[in-house]
Design brief:
The protein is of the alpha/beta class and 397 residues long. The chain has 12 helices and 12 strands. It is globular and about 65 Å long.
Length: 397
């Protein structure tokens, strides 16, 4: 099926236009700092019913965006990042649900973040023209505050109120998105009826934090980083960001998936005994890193990896995850993948065990899948069928 045919397919969202929510009420952050105002870019699919009871919140992963389904223009070749799961008759059925997917604060896809203009003091008449121009165009850059998933959920709650939604029929997310679904159930237990937590963990392991730190050091030590103010130098730490993405990409795939896709295949049929690209997997990783460094922001990557590191909802409840879930009122669906070594099935079972300990309704699925952590984005039949079964049970009041 070519791009034009996909646009017209009966189960496709079609063309979508991002929307923007501006909030002037200050947002107090977990760090103690405050955003005086903020904006969230978001997309919606389907129609909100009269009772406002059919809304589903989609939470994206670390480098994700608000563009979860459909196309932005007729010439687009690539649909939203979860297009295989969102649409008429799909797992998250837009004939039934009103789907909302925001881009989180701190990101670089339009919501308030390091690439946004920083609020400045009022400009006086005494300021010269150059000073005024600089003030008007100054981005947050490295001055953007560190944030947490708890902060994300608080900002999403503001969007929920703006849209006139009293309760989410479901909050759904994979990876870092699954962490947001858990935080919703803990912080706003009366605001959601179902939560889907896919390929996630209740907190990062030391190994995962270590991967994130190596990625951050690759960026910070890039000569073009300039302490995060690279825009002032008309520069960008693309080399460091590319290396960070290459490292992360390795953790998203399983050994089996990489072996099946690349093996030890050579790019040019023979070894040349040098440090240029020789193996196909090297070529693939370099390409992924280079493409990412051209479309993503380095300060954003630093902030989002820290956000991931900080997630630990049990820390507010005496390091007792079961106690953290005690006030939750929703039904949970938890899914993991056997070859996911970034967020292994053992981490999902920690979530399930904690929920069972406080007698919360939970369904758990461990899926045989060779694709590793990225399996949650893909059409893995058993996973997709179970996920669809859960969403079919989501009640519309």
């Amino acid at each position: 099926m070519n791009a034009h045919e996909r646009h017209l397919a009966a189960d496709n969202i079609g063309l979508v236009t991002p929307k923007r929510f501006h909030c002037d009420t200050p947002l107090k952050l977990t760090s103690g700092r405050e955003l005086p105002s903020f904006e969230l870019v978001y997309e919606t699919y389907g129609v909100l019913n009269n009772k406002g009871s059919n809304a589903v919140l989609i939470c994206h992963a670390l480098s994700g965006s608000h563009h979860a389904a459909g196309f932005h223009a007729p010439e687009d070749k690539k649909a939203g990042w979860w297009d295989g799961f969102i649409g008429p008759g799909k797992v998250i059925d837009t004939n039934k649900f009103f789907v909302v997917c925001p881009n989180n604060i701190g990101s670089c896809y339009g919501s308030t973040g390091p690439t946004s203009l920083k609020p400045q003091p009022p400009i006086t008449e005494a300021d010269d023209t150059d000073a005024k121009a600089k003030v008007k165009t100054k981005e947050w850059g490295a001055d953007f505050p560190l944030i947490t998933i708890k902060d994300w959920v608080a900002s999403q709650k503001r969007l929920m109120d703006h849209l006139g939604i009293n309760q989410w029929a479901a909050v759904v997310g994979g990876s870092m998105g699954g962490m947001q679904a858990m935080q919703w159930a803990i912080d706003y237990p009366e605001q959601l009826r179902h939560a889907a937590v896919i390929a996630a963990a209740p907190k990062l392991s030391a190994q995962n934090i270590a991967f994130n730190e190596v990625a951050r050091q690759a960026i910070i030590t890039d000569p073009e980083f300039f302490a995060g103010q690279y825009k002032d130098h008309d520069s960008a730490p693309k080399r460091g960001l590319s290396l960070a993405r290459m490292l992360a990409h390795i953790t998203y795939l399983s050994d089996e998936a990489m072996r099946e896709k690349f093996g030890r295949d050579l790019r040019n049929e023979k070894i040349h005994f040098g440090y240029d690209v020789e193996f196909q997997v090297e070529s693939y990783l370099r390409y992924q890193g280079q493409m990412f460094s051209q479309s993503f922001d380095a300060n954003t990557y630093l902030i989002l990896t820290k956000c991931l590191d900080y997630f630990d909802p049990a820390s507010e409840y005496g390091d007792d995850l079961a106690k953290a879930f005690e006030r939750s009122q929703c039904r949970f669906f938890v899914a993991s993948f056997t070859t996911d070594w970034r967020f292994s099935p053992a981490r999902s079972r920690e979530i399930v065990d904690a929920l069972m300990k406080v007698h919360k309704p939970v369904s758990y699925l461990e899926v045989q899948a060779r694709q590793g952590h990225d399996s949650f984005l893909l059409n893995v039949p058993r996973y997709k069928k179970a996920f669809e079964g859960f969403m079919n049970m989501v009640d519309i009041l």
